Every structure is written in structure tokens, then in C-alpha cells.
Amino acid sequence: MFGIVLAIAVYAAFYCGIRYTRLKRSIREINKDLADITRQIEENRILKLHASQREMEELLVTLNQTLEQIRAERISCEKREREFQRQLEDISHDLRTPLTAIQGYLKLIDRESLDSEEQEYLEVVRRRSAHLQHLINQFYEFSTLVSGNLKMELQQVDLARMCREQVLGYYQQFEDAGIEVQIHIPEKPVFIQADENALSRIIGNLLQNAVRYAKDQLTVEVREAESPVLICRNDAENLTGEDVRRMFDRFYTGDRARNQGGTGLGLAISRRLAEQMGGSMTAECGKEDGDISGEDQTRYGGIEDGIMSGNGADNNPPMQCMRLTIKTVFQSGELYNFKKV
């Protein structure tokens, strides 16, 4: 009798061991397949059992239904995004023509025939129309960029020279804003792979951002490296970790930018331009106040690809950012065969 019980126990243990091994192998294979499908979610693939196991069939049915829902939502989001981009481009184009006509009529007005008050009103209208033109151009440029219709001609460009020229061009604006500028740019050329117009736009947007949001200090630095880096570092006030985390989101302005008429597109455009040229743009936030020229700032939120690391949990109170650093990394321009992209 004991022998029969022992034999049954051994058989049951052997059977359970086999079942466990097969189940474990199936889970491992499903996990591998799911990882492959997730990396290429756009492909219409489903999970399949490598061996018949009723215990796993219901799980796979649920997972495949979830994958289908994710694909359907992604297709819907991409369709809405394309439609939004098309509408944005159409609206920008439709507004440019009448605005150009308005600006033309404003130029035809004879200022000499107006009294001082009327001339002041005319100047206000001109400034407002120029600001509106700038906003419309930003909308149009962004829609063209994200749609992939913007063509770039990559060539060897001296990053150091362009930075010096741009900073000099903004000298009066920095002086009017009471911002002290420190420059650390090599005298010799620092060549990168870039489209000259796109690079000029990136540097200009970074300097405009500093004019708007710097407290009273700005450091502009160009570093020679295998991948050259442009660094803009300024002190800040009323800037939070959430502002920095969302800094590259399109149309995100934050309270301060809304008060200054920003569109929230400048840095979004700059980042896309940098990426299209094979580079990257990231932001870091320092908690300590004081000299902004050094490298020993305390980081509590490194931002890369829109993801914040550090103490940026939504449940935490907003952290004040005392120093903002925006780094733009470029491809070296020494050894490339340049082409249009």
C-alpha cells in the first residue's frame, strides 16, 4: 500500500514539475514576444502560444485585445495630429496674406500729416502687427517642421563664430533688460554639421528665452568635444521644476510667458531643429542661487526627451528653479559628407 502511495506521489510531483517547467517556458516566450511587439507596435502582430496550454489562452486573448486597442488609439492620435498640423499650416497661411496687406497700408500712411497722439497710435498698431506677424510665422514654421516638409542643407558651420555674432546682435536687448552676459567661446573655429539658417534660429531662440526669463545673469559657452556643445545658463526667478520639465512642449508657456506674449513654440522649434540635424537639446534646473558661471550647480531635475528625473513627483510641491541650463549637442562638422535632409 505504501509503495502505491509513494508511486502516486512521485508521479504527481513529476507531472507538476513538467507542467511548471512548460508554464515557465511559455511565460518567458510570451514575454519575449511581447517585448518585440512593443518595440514595433505599428506592425499588426499578435501573441501566439508556442504550445497548447489552456491556462494561458485567456491571458493571451486579453493581451491581444489590449494591443489592438493601443494600435487603434495610436492610429487615431496620429490622424488627429496630422489634421491639427494641416489646420495649423492652413490657418497660418491664410492669416499671412491679409496681415501683409495691413502692414503695407500702414507703411503708406503719411506720418507727417498726423498729430503726435495719432502718430503714437500708429506706432502701437505697427508694433502689434509686427508681433502678430512673428506669432504667425512661428506657427507656420512649427507646422512645416513637424510635417517633415522643412528641408535642410547640412554643411560645415563654425558654431563659435555664429554664437559670437548672435550674442553681439542681442547686446542692446541684454543691456536694456539689465542682464550681465559672460561669454566662454573659443577664438578658433568649432565646426559642426548644421544647416546655417536652422542653427541661427536655434541660437536666436535660446538668447530670446534668456532675455525674457533671465534675472540678471547669463553665461553663453561653447565646448569643443567629439560632439560640440552650446550651453546657455542663466539665473531665474518664478521658474519651477514643472516649467522646466515641460519647457520643450509645444504651446507650453507657464504664467510668466503668458504675461509676456510668448507662444510656447520657440524652444519646441529649436529642439526639433537640433534633432533634425542629428543633435539634441536638454534642460537642467539648479536649486542654488548665486554665480551661474560654474559647473557645481545642484541638479534636482535633469530633463531629456520630455522626461524629468529626480524629485519631480506630481504630489510634491513645486520646486523653485534658481538656475536654468539649456544644453544643445551637435554633430561634429570635421569628417562628414554633407547632404540635404
Structural overview:
The structure is a single chain. With 341 residues, the protein is of the alpha+beta class. It has 3 domains: 2-75; 90-146; 155-307 and 318-329, Histidine kinase-like ATPase, C-terminal domain (Heat Shock Protein 90, 2-Layer Sandwich). Helices cover 53% and strands 16% of the residues. The protein contains 9 helices and 9 strands. It has helices at 2-39, 54-108, 116-146, 159-169, 171-176, 196-213, 241-245, 254-259, 266-276, and strands spanning 155-158, 180-184, 191-194, 214-223, 229-236, 280-286, 299-304, 307-310, 323-329. The strands form 2 sheets. Strands 2-4-5-9-6-7-8 form a 7-stranded mixed β-sheet. Strands 1-3 form a two-stranded antiparallel ribbon. The longest helix is centred in the N-terminal third of the chain and has 55 residues, at 54-108. The radius of gyration is 29 Å and the shape is elongated. The model is unreliable at 289-314 and 337-341 (pLDDT under 50).
Quick description:
The chain is of the alpha+beta class. It has helices at residues 2-39, 54-108, 116-146, 159-169, 171-176, 196-213, 241-245, 254-259, 266-276, and strands at residues 155-158, 180-184, 191-194, 214-223, 229-236, 280-286, 299-304, 307-310, 323-329.
